UniProtKB/TrEMBL annotation:
Protein name per UniProt: MerR family transcriptional regulator
Matches recorded under SMART domains: HTH_MERR
Organism: Amycolatopsis methanolica 239
Cross-referenced SUPFAM superfamilies: Putative DNA-binding domain
Domain HTH merR-type: 1-71
Classification via Pfam families: MerR_1
Record keyword DNA-binding present: yes
Keywords: DNA-binding
Entry's Gene Ontology molecular function annotations: DNA binding; DNA-binding transcription factor activity
Keyword DNA-binding listed: yes
InterPro entries: DNA-bd_dom_put_sf, MerR-type_HTH_dom, MerR_fam
Amino acid sequence: MSYSIAEAARRSGLSIDTLRYYERIKLLDPPARDTAGRRAYSDADLAWLEFLTKLRTTGMPIKMMREYAQLRAAGDASAGRRRAILLEQRRSVAERIAELQACMDVLNYKIENYDRICARVPGAVSVVREEISA
């Protein structure tokens, strides 16, 4: 299947400017062109963009994403280094998750404390809260 830049942007959740930027900095190989010379993105391009978006969401710096993209182009010979990059990013994500969990624990403690206060203070208004599973 082939997608225009507007459709690729819509499907990937990235802006047209971001797609062009990713191409310019070599995160994304230049897509094929249709007969009118317009970019024609493939399903493989969209899958790669989805992966790049996940890497960005994890907080991976563009510089590291560029290294990963260059290594990807080198094929299987670069699998060890690509694995190392992903292992390091996973470690970083795990640290952030632990930090956020500690913050969630503090918030839960404070909310429970206010629930206790509201339960024992006459006339105190307790706002109904939506539970979030941790």
